[in-house]
Design goal:
The complex is a heterodimer of chains A (118) and B (112).
Chain A (H helix, E strand, L loop, with lengths): L3 E4 L2 E4 L5 E7 L6 E7 L5 E8 L5 E2 L8 E7 L2 E6 L8 E7 L11 E2 L3 E5 L1
Chain B lengths: L3 E2 L4 E5 L4 E7 L4 E9 L6 E7 L4 E4 L2 E6 L4 E6 L8 E9 L6 E2 L3 E6 L1
The chains are: A mainly beta (118), B mainly beta (112).
Chain lengths: 118, 112
């Protein structure tokens, strides 16, 4: 089945530094990938839709200059949290759906990245 | 305002019995509904989906029912097993979009 690899699984960084999270589709191509954020006991909130070869589409309230998304190939999307602050600490998850596969077959999620900013 | 709602934060069921997880939505323009299972510190795992033109879909122990007039869907797990203990998320895909919209999740605990 479709596999999405997300790295790193856990990262601790100092306030003011930047952190890059990678999301790779291992056995399929994805023109579109999705980035979510989950707070404790909360829903997965869509942050942005990453589009291969073009700019990402950000949801309302998500700072595009803070959460930089790059989708340079059909198998890789990256999320960079710039100038991280403690309030950015959260669980970040990426998702993708194989090209040509209908929504009914589900979207595949990465294993998530626990970001802690100290 | 939340478009996908899971009003029960938790559910406890005995092993072998039926688990019923509920989900309500407010937007009639969803074309697919999906259920995901999630363990702590892991990404969600796809369980089952249903098209908005159907009212039932079954896959092994999992059955999803869709009541469009009530804007309500439910996931039935029969028989429930301790390994089913996890957080279950209801998600919906808008007709005009590609990203999924999630509910807040329901924590299912199955005791042996």
């Amino acid at each position: 089945g479709a596999v999405v690899s997300q790295h790193p699984s856990r990262v601790i960084c100092k306030s003011g530094t930047s952190v890059k999270i990678e999301c790779r589709s291992l056995d399929f191509q994805a023109t579109t990938m999705f980035w979510y954020r989950q707070f404790p006991k909360q829903s997965l909130m869509l942050m942005a839709t990453s589009n291969e070869g073009s700019k990402a589409t950000y949801e309302q309230g998500v700072e595009k200059d803070k959460f930089l998304i790059n989708h340079a190939s059909l198998t890789l999307s990256t999320l960079t949290v710039t100038s991280a602050h403690p309030e950015d600490s959260s669980f970040y998850i990426c998702s993708a759906r194989p090209q040509g596969q209908g929504a009914g077959y589900g979207y595949t999620f990465g294993s998530g990245t626990r970001l802690t900013v100290v | 305002d939340q478009q996908v709602k899971q009003n029960s934060p938790s559910l406890s069921v005995q092993e072998g019995r039926i688990s019923i997880l509920n989900c309500d939505y407010t937007n009639s323009m969803f074309d697919y509904f999906l259920w995901y299972k999630k363990y702590p510190a892991e990404g969600p795992t796809f369980l089952i989906s249903i098209s908005s033109i159907k009212d039932k879909n079954e896959d092994g122990r999992f059955t999803v029912f869709l009541n469009k007039s009530a804007k309500h869907l439910s996931l039935h797990i029969v028989p429930s097993q301790p390994g089913d203990s996890a957080v279950y998320f209801c998600a919906a895909k808008p007709q005009a979009g590609t990203a999924l919209i999630f509910g807040k999740g329901t924590t299912l605990s199955v005791s042996s």
